[in-house]
């Protein structure tokens, strides 16, 4: 049997393959501003943002990065005008339906994290189908945070653990970080090493509060629809220049 090597030849030569992040999280921000600057409705920015995400996913695969997590919709984003929320829900569904075949061909394993039960039923159906169909794929782990809130995730862990305690299945003194992690939406996926946020905002906006505890943070002024491989290359270069101490000296 011949093992197909990961395509490394297109990784920029100034990046060290051995020190690439194993998991990258991205806050795809600035779609609305991108559209506004062009005199377009905000939704056009979201539409364009899909292409950026598609190329980033492909780039991670090409450069040998095993996991990517993208923030698509926060628990707070329901507070936007109904028209925008509805557009986004329809967009997610449409893109998922359109891209599933290609994701299968490219061996992508997709997982959605967040309070998925509150999403429109037809979107939930597409989500279940995509997760089921790709669950045995062995390529990049692609996680999409949809109706996701870090605080809500932590509360839902507490509730699940409290239920187990009440039923006598867990002792309080046995609750530790690894038990807790077993109840996170992201259980089984290693924590992100690098968080990229576009559009210049220096905040987490309720994204992966637990998981990002020791992530390196890279913020670019570039708006999400304009983020490209060269920008990504710059983010990885910056990451490789960081010294990750994890509290040690
Ligand atoms: C990010 O872009 C996409 C989502 C939150 C769905 P925004 O829509 O937040 O764009 P800005 O920040 O208003 O420019
Ligand atoms: C974060 O962006 C959420 C997503 C990218 C899905 P927001 O635009 O909602 O965050 P704030 O409002 O600037 O904090
Ligand atoms: Mg925003």
From TrEMBL:
Where along the chain is the active site annotated? Answer: 29, 77
A GO biological-process term: polyprenol biosynthetic process
E.C. number: 2.5.1.-
* Keyword terms, alphabetized: Magnesium, Metal-binding, Transferase
Q: Does the keyword tRNA-binding apply?
A: no
Q: SUPFAM superfamilies from the xrefs?
A: Undecaprenyl diphosphate synthase
Which residues are Mg(2+)-binding?
29, 216
- CDD domains (alphabetical): Cis_IPPS (cd00475)
Q: Which annotated residues bind substrate?
A: 30-34, 42, 46, 74-76, 78, 80, 197, 203-205
Q: Write down how the cofactor binds this protein.
A: Binds 2 magnesium ions per subunit.
Q: What class of enzyme is it?
A: transferase
Q: Which cofactor does it need?
A: Mg(2+)
Q: What does this protein do?
A: Catalyzes the condensation of isopentenyl diphosphate (IPP) with allylic pyrophosphates generating different type of terpenoids.
Return the HAMAP family for the record: ISPT (MF_01139)
Give the quaternary structure.
Homodimer.
**Similarity comment: family membership:** Belongs to the UPP synthase family.
Q: What is this protein called?
A: Isoprenyl transferase
């Amino acid at each position: 049997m011949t093992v197909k090597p990961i395509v490394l030849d297109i990784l920029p030569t100034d990046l060290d393959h051995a020190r690439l992040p194993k998991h990258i999280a991205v806050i795809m921000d600035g779609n609305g501003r991108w559209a506004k600057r062009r005199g377009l409705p905000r939704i056009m920015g979201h539409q364009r943002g899909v292409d950026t995400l598609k190329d980033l996913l492909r780039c991670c695969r090409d450069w040998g990065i095993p996991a990517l997590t993208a923030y698509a919709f926060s628990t707070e984003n329901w507070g936007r005008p109904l028209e925008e929320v509805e557009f986004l829900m329809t967009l997610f569904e449409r893109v998922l339906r359109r891209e599933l075949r290609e994701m299968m061909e490219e061996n992508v394993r997709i997982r959605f994290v967040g309070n998925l039960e509150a999403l429109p039923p037809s979107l939930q159906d597409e989500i279940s189908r995509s997760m089921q169909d790709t669950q045995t794929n062995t390529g990049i782990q692609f996680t999409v945070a949809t109706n996701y809130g870090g605080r809500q995730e932590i509360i839902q862990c507490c509730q699940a653990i409290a239920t187990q305690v009440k039923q006598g299945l867990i002792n309080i003194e046995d609750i530790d970080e690894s038990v807790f992690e077993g109840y996170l939406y992201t259980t089984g996926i290693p924590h992100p090493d690098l968080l990229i946020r576009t559009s210049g905002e220096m905040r987490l906006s309720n994204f992966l509060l637990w998981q990002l505890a020791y992530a390196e943070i890279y913020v670019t002024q570039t708006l999400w629809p304009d983020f490209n491989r060269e920008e990504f290359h710059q983010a990885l270069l910056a990451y490789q220049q960081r010294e990750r101490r994890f509290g040690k000296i």
